[in-house]
Amino acid sequence: MEFTAKQIAEFLNGTVDGNENAAVHTFAKIEEGVPGALSFLSNVKYTQHIYSTKSSIVLVNKDFKPEQPVSATLVRVDNAYEALAKLMSLYASMKPGRSGISSLASVSDKATIGRNVYIGPFSVIEDGAVIGDNTQIYPLVTVGEGAKIGSDCILYPHVTIYYGCKVGNRCILHAGSVVGADGFGFAPTPNGYNKIPQIGIAELEDDVEIGANTCVDRSTMGRTVVHKGVKLDNFVQVAHNVEVGEHTVISAQSGIAGSSKVGAWCMIGGQSGISGHLSIGNKVNFGAKTGALSNVPDGESIMGYPAIGYRNFLRSSILVRQLPEMDATIRQLKKEIEELKAKLESK
Asked: Given the DSSP bridges, would you call strands 15-17 and 73-77 parallel, antiparallel or unpaired?
């Protein structure tokens, strides 16, 4: 597939600086550009590369002002990064999807399979499962009894959807992810821990993407729900009865303990943790390795363990580096105070 600068600009509502007939057929980072590639510039740290890149077309923000001659054709848009994402989505959607059911797959006669569905070798679709139109199920996937998968989804190898769980439309589940494993519920007794049956479900709404080896546990009762547009990175744990609000993004190795509620449009940095039964407001930002032990209101930015306000965390970090000098100063002051006391007492 090949696109000209003129076609790209029309699609993105942008303008062309240079040869509107310049054509591209692939993507490349601006510092690794080659003829026939499209690159983008949105971070000023990479500005120097636009003057030497070999890419044929570069997406730039409308307010970009070159300080040297640029050989590439520029397509000016409102936001180069968002424009790139839009183009790459278009490019991916134009690739033909797989279809057909492998003779090596196990598909129950009691399952409902939509149109243009692909089911790869050694995948298992159990009784009562529903697979929506145009969904791609790669090899070694298991869709449990009564589970429902929406339309236009992609389930990569080794994904497991437990019985009764639900996945919305246009969801992407990466390799090894699990939806609907039992929540971590055990009742202590003198003789050990008795398992508490987890009789609820886990549900992903539309346009959710979850990374490799990420787990969304089923609820004790009711449902664990990941609302529409949420993006979970690799190795994220969403425990039983958790609710994750719309369009929240959670980075790798983060975990949310049971029955906590996370609001919409939150950004949670890697290796963060949220304790159980908490309420995290809307548009809350967690710095990396943040540990939330109490409720967080809307719009807060927090960091550290236990979590504190982001600015306070930065101030505290500066003070920590100064502790050795502060300790020496305090010791010296204590010594001087003792000497003054001794002189006063001797008079």
From this structure: antiparallel
